[in-house]
Write a structure and sequence with these properties.
With 424 residues, the chain is mostly helical. It has 15 helices and two strands.
């Protein structure tokens, strides 16, 4: 059982690394284009100016059906969103996994309600994708039929996920936060504890791990062949069949399997506010038997469409996207990714793996310790409010203490090795 769980963790990690590589490449496209970078900065600051000038005429709440959000944007909110985006960017650039696992819990920690945090994070991902990826070079590896079948599933899943989130929120806003908290506790707990055990195992063997870099090779090796499960899935002749990987001799799989797994990815993405890459890669390569080349291209394709559809149709039009925070996240992540990716050149991979486990577990503790207050408020448990508040505060302190320590460590490594990095 433990071996199977560790295998599942390895697959999810590989998928997160594939997503992080795309995130890094997209961010670099924006950073290297001064016009695009200037647009991001202007979009981040413009709402502050406009809202400050018309604060008295603003509604008491921002969003649909009295969505829990501040009366209007402030400089403090923008600064916090930039900081959170910066940390997420460092995680993506330095550790080599997507920072979506950090953004939603961090936003919830600073007072943004869960459904608004999810919608805002998805909109931030979508904004980055359309600004940085107009015609991405890896889109040439997309099998159109495979991509369309997958997107049918992801859009359907995102519709269901967004509907579930909104239905729970409209029924009881506290229940909405509890639902999102529990999902994050389960996912982050699973990833965090296995990442920690992996780090301890590697440390005992005194082996360096180079998979934490953004430049992780996604092709070849174990992913070049097909697993027994993939062979079995492709042997099931359930029309219509989708053909792909013609350069490798041609492979076929039932479109129903592609749509089903697309549905799972879209559902999880819409509920958690992430890109879904940590699921797409292992599903395509190890379950459907798709080559890693085609997988990466298709994942980019689905991220753009799924996050765009989910963030706008399922969240934005209902008032569950905080645009100032989204732009702040984008600005911070662009800077963080650049610094984080440079630090990987001067830091051992094993240390990076240790910080990955630490950051993921920090998010786990943060969301776990926030549950007593929510459960007490809804009447599911009976606990003194002061005790529940103290537990939640402890989780908040632990979370930000660890992520700030991580950020400070990365930034110091960047500064102390600046001359070496310049030479490189």
């Amino acid at each position: 059982m433990i071996r199977k769980m560790r295998r599942a963790y390895d697959l999810m990690l590989e998928g997160a690394q594939a997503y992080a590589k795309w995130d890094y490449e997209t961010s670099m496209r924006i950073i290297r284009d001064r016009r695009r970078y200037a647009i991001v900065i202007l979009l981040s600051l413009l709402p502050i100016v406009l809202l400050a000038a018309s604060a008295e005429t603003l509604p008491k709440t921002l969003g649909g059906k009295e969505a829990y959000a501040p009366v209007h944007s402030t400089f403090e909110m923008l600064a916090m969103s930039v900081f959170i985006g910066f940390i997420a960017g460092l995680v993506t650039g330095c550790i080599g996994v997507g920072g979506g696992f950090i953004i939603t819990p961090a936003l919830m920690s600073v007072g943004v309600k869960g459904i608004l945090a999810v919608g805002t994070d998805q909109f931030h991902i979508f904004t980055k994708s359309i600004m940085g990826t107009v015609v991405h070079k890896k889109l040439g590896n997309v099998c159109v039929a495979l991509a369309l079948a997958f997107v049918v599933g992801t859009v359907t899943g995102a519709t269901v996920g967004g509907t579930i989130n909104r239905a729970i929120y409209y029924s009881n806003p506290i229940m909405s936060d509890i639902f999102i908290n529990i999902i994050y506790v389960l996912i982050l707990g699973f990833l965090g504890f296995f990442a920690l055990s992996d780090y301890i195992r590697l440390k005992k063997r005194a082996a360096s791990f180079d998979g934490g870099k953004v430049e992780t090779q996604l092709n070849g090796g174990a992913t070049a062949g097909m697993t027994k499960l993939a062979v079995r899935v492709q042997s099931i002749n359930l029309p219509p069949m989708v053909s792909f990987d013609h350069d490798l001799g041609g492979r076929k799989v039932s479109a129903w399997f592609v749509v089903f797994f697309g549905f799972i990815v879209g559902l999880v993405s819409a509920i958690m506010g992430v890109g879904g890459g940590f699921l797409t890669f292992p599903i395509f390569v190890y379950v459907l038997g798709v080559s890693s080349f085609t997988t990466v291209g298709t994942d980019i394709f689905q991220i753009i469409i799924t996050t765009g559809y989910s963030s706008i149709v399922q969240y934005a039009i209902y008032g569950f996207v905080f645009y100032t925070l989204a732009m702040g996240l984008l600005l911070g992540s662009l800077i963080g990714i650049q610094i984080g990716s440079l630090v990987t050149k001067v830091v051992k991979g094993m240390h990076i793996r240790g910080f990955y486990a630490t950051v993921i577990l920090a998010g786990f503790v943060n969301r776990l310790f926030a549950l007593p207050t929510k459960l007490n408020a809804i009447g599911w448990i009976s606990i003194d409010k002061n005790v529940a508040s103290a537990i939640e505060l402890a989780g908040l302190v632990v979370f930000f203490a660890l992520v700030i320590t991580f950020a400070a460590w990365v930034f110091m490594k960047f500064l102390t090795n600046l001359s070496e990095l310049k030479e490189g």
